[in-house]
Design a protein that fits this description.
Largest sheet: 5 strands, mixed
Strand content: 15-25%
Shape: globular
Structural class: alpha+beta
Helix content: 25-40%
Radius of gyration: 19 Å
Number of strands: 10
Amino acid sequence: MLGGIATLNQINQHIFEITDCQWRTKTPFASVRRIVQQTAGIYKIKPGLYALETHRQALENNGILVQNEHNQDSDAIKTFNHAYYQGLLLEMGKMRHLDTFVPDQDKHKQFLNQAELGDLRTIQVLPEYSFPQLVKRSSTIDVIWFNDRHMPHSFFEIEHSTDIQNSLLKFNDLQDFAARMVIVADEKRHNEFISKMGYAAFHQLAEKKRVSFLSYESLGKQYEQEFEKQKFEFVI
């Protein structure tokens, strides 16, 4: 069904669809996580993402690799990471009942070989929410969440190895919108983000704390928690 690869969220979702499976525990999500982590024949690709050993070769042939010091700068890892985290953000936005958008240039990229990013976004055409030049400026942002009035809720730029400064320049031009602005990257780039935010050109962004840094690991954890929250009757 999922092609031998799945996030913990996907595993949880499908496991709880099995009607004759009874969980005699108050913490089923933790149990699923432990089973996945300890079961032979399952390997971890990245935090919260697992695959079957029987599918490893096929997945690697499709560019889905376990990142290490030897391949971390390869085109395959860059492409996979970028599309993967775009997919997580699209799914999280949908779970929060927000509309989501990815640029047309990315719409044919695969999320875990299960769907194209264009199929995951809920808006196929970028809303004309402001002056044409500003809408055009946002048209290449990696992921945008929109509220029910089709105004930007959050802008996300995913930076694996490209210059963070380019994303900050976009955010600088869009700072008059009441939208969150987020750089998503490996924690190793956090200091680089802080350094670039110190540039005089981004003084207003820094002074008003308009841009936040979100690590890959934190995004992965929040994605897992987002599905678990859907099971609560009331969320504060």
